[in-house]
Amino acid sequence: MEQRTIGSVEVGAIGLGGMPMSIEGRPDEDRSIRTIHAALDAGVTLIDTADAYHIHADEVGHNETLIAKALSSYGRDTSHVLVATKGGHLRPGDGSWTVDGSPQHLRAAVDESLKRLGVDAIGLYQYHRPDPRVPYAESVGVLAELLDAGKIRMAGISNANPDQIRAAVDILGGRLASVQNQFSPAFRSSEPELELCDELGIAFLPWSPLGGIGRAGELGGRVDPFAAIAAAHGVSPQRVCLAWMLAKSPVVIPIPGSSRPETIVDSTQAADLALTADEVARLDATA
Ligand SMILES: NC(=O)c1ccc[n+]([C@@H]2O[C@H](COP(=O)([O-])OP(=O)(O)OC[C@H]3O[C@@H](n4cnc5c(N)ncnc54)[C@H](OP(=O)(O)O)[C@@H]3O)[C@@H](O)[C@H]2O)c1
User: Fold this and answer.
1) Ligand 1 atom nearest to CA at 128
2) Which regions of the chain are under pLDDT 50?
3) pTM over 0.85
4) If we measure between CA atoms, which residue out of 49, 152, 53 comes closest to residue 106?
5) What is residue 221's predicted lDDT score, i.e. its pLDDT?
6) Residue 260, pLDDT score
7) Which pLDDT score is estimated for 218?
8) CA-to-CA distance for 158 and 255, rounded, in angstroms?
9) How far is the CA of 206 from the centre of ligand 1 (A)?
10) Ligand 1, atom 43: closest residue by C-alpha
């Protein structure tokens, strides 16, 4: 697979989003492990997770534990696989998502993630979502502290606006490796963040790149240019969507979620799908 860069680390241009394997509607563990193994077989070397990817209050880190299990049962070397986790979001168990960006919470959360992932240092640790009750500099300041302490190798932020990206670059002394924001054909409002990352050379990881769990199928509407261009290439509209994102900037590394081997294998082939400038322009114009 084509390689792209997060900080100093090369990863396959298409990553795997772990969320569908751990939240509502998740499959059984066997299918999830097969999905992760299929991703590795296809050349995926970036797996995105979070401590908040779980359903019940007593299973925080369900997805991290699952990924650690899949990596250790793969049977081949996985030391080059970058597991990117996040802290600062919580799921109390009633279906809701809450935030806690306090330094105490983030420090404790990273220690728990280290244990679940079974590593000495987390490859990429991302502050999941700004907490309006905590100054951004305090939350991101913890990432700087964790980098200095060697508990995380790279630091990223998520759900950040351009001012927060610039602030994080400052707070981290230029060590901001990635920004993860929602970006898909139906949700383009992160274009300014994508452009800023392109300018600064920071990896941009679009989340819900296909429109989100349960909505990824809508990309194939019959009159949609995504479907028409997919038909012309004889590939899925989802593959066209990911190839379109890759064409936007070399800093873009989509992390499509998957809970079935077939879907992640299909998605990884987007890295080999070359779209013409005219096709990219037609897809851009669908906004
Ligand atoms: N930072 C944040 O706040 C945040 C928020 C949301 C998500 N995320 C991250 O971003 C990742 C991706 O987002 P997402 O999972 O919400 O949504 P998504 O990637 O837009 O869509 C996921 C769904 O797309 C389907 N799919 C994947 N590849 C496909 C293909 N080639 N053809 C047809 N269907 C395909 C999957 O179906 P199957 O399940 O049937 O395989 C899956 O349920 C998450 O997994 C998570 O890691 C981050």
Assistant:
1) 1
2) none
3) yes
4) 152
5) 76
6) 98
7) 87
8) 13
9) 10
10) 213
Ramachandran category for residue 168: left, alpha or beta (phi over 0 → left; psi -120 to 50 → alpha): alpha
18 lines ligand 1 (CB under 6 A): yes
Atom of ligand 1 nearest to the CA of 270: 31
pLDDT of residue 222: 65
- E-only strand ranges, the chain: 3-6, 9-12, 16-17, 46-48, 82-87, 89-90, 98-99, 122-127, 152-158, 176-182, 203-207
Q: Which atom of ligand 1 is nearest to the CA of 264?
A: 28
Rounded to the nearest angstrom, the distance between the alpha carbon of 255 and the centre of ligand 1 is 7
Is residue 259 lining ligand 1, measured as CB closer than 6 Å? yes
Q: How far is residue 245's CA from residue 243's CA, in Å, rounded to a whole number?
A: 5
Instruction: Name the residue at shortest CA distance from atom 11 of ligand 1.
Output: 17
Structure tokens at 120: 């000495």
Q: What is the DSSP code string of 157-205? A: EES--HHHHHHHHHHTTT-EEEEEEE-BTTB-TTHHHHHHHHHHT-EEE
Q: Which residues are catalytic?
A: 53
**In whole angstroms, what is the distance from residue 111 CA to residue 179 CA?**
22
* Residue 42, pLDDT score: 98
Cα dihedral 60→66→71→73 (10° resolution): 130
pLDDT at position 217: 86
CB contact set of 128 (below 8 Å; sequence gap of 6+): 50, 52, 86, 87, 88, 89, 99, 158, 159
Q: What confidence tens digit (pLDDT) does each residue in 89-136 have?
A: 999 999 999 999 999 999 999 999 999 999 999 999 999 999 999 999
Query: For residue 32, how far is its CA from the centre of ligand 1 (angstroms)?
Result: 13
Length of the chain counted residue by residue: 287
